[in-house]
Design a protein that fits this description.
The protein is α+β, with helices and mostly antiparallel strands and 375 residues long. The protein has ten helices and eleven strands. It starts with 12 loop residues before the first strand and ends in a 19-residue tail after the last helix.
Amino acid sequence: MIARLIRLPWGAVIDGWHVLKELGDGGFAVVYLAEKNGQRRAIKVARHRDASGDDKQTHARLKRELTVLSMLDHPNIVELCGHGYAEAGNFYLALEYVDGWTLGEWKERKHPTFHEILSVFVKIAEALLYMHSRGILHRDLKLANVVIRKSDGKPIIIDFSCATYTQAADLTESGLPPGTDRFRAPEQFKFLREHRDEHRARYAFQVADEIFAVGAMLYELLTDPRPTEARARETLNNPFDPPAPARDLNARVPEALSDLVESILSRDPNLRPVDTEALRRELAELEADPGADYQAPAHPPSEQRQPQPVGQKPGRWSKLRALGGRVVADVRRLGKVLAAGAVAAVVLAAVVALWMLPSAQTLPSAAPAARHTCP
């Protein structure tokens, strides 16, 4: 039987689990909140691959996720509670259901201090260190794949759809492993360019790639007061042009923290922390800093208004503000002192050019995640 997946309404049944609502929709699966015998779980159902028409391919990623999660038992990693097959033949996982916010939502709603952000990232690094010690790589770390549980503030790494482990079979059909482009390390794009004519070439994902993704997440929280808002952002992984230091875009960022993020985002993977233990140690050292600057919110709450409704186009002023920050950062990095008239000309040109551009279409924001502990 070919497993096909349709949108399941409230009250539909998946192997005895009664669907309450849809939580998320990804490339490999759809996740539902469901209940059985008084227990609520996130039920992740494999999405059928129409291109292949092959049950094995339909279920391969989710069964890989089953293998990975069965190897893990950590307080900051989503817990596997069970698995089975839906009535339509689709493989599914039963996972903890976490009542919480994604990292981006947490940033906007709780207005965390730098110390609180560092505390979260120390725990993320500890979870990654645990994973890596078992030969497991997540490969899709991003703001939407870390949830802050409301009950205790703990970060939980979720969505292991793209994960792999030592000696796992290769499921990749393209040069790069699955993942989210914004959080890929720059060497991945360099690999694509250098092997564009080699159709069988496959990039070997490394711990250094995972460390870069951690830096990209941290950079987003430090520099963007509204990280869930869908709009154009500065590229973080251009192989030749690093992003502006976080402190240049947000003067509140402590200098030592800005320097650490800059090293994590280095174009050269050899200049990043050597492994996740080194990353954890450096984050923990800053977390322990008693300085008043670490007790300040990363952004004033006034800058963290609620995200625009889905489909609403971002205003030109917000674009101009971001562009202005980038211009200032570039000037600082180049070490050039511009005359006042030249600065005015640059700003005026930027305003005119930006005003003539059409507003970019926004993308839907990610669905909130939630979780409870398995008994």
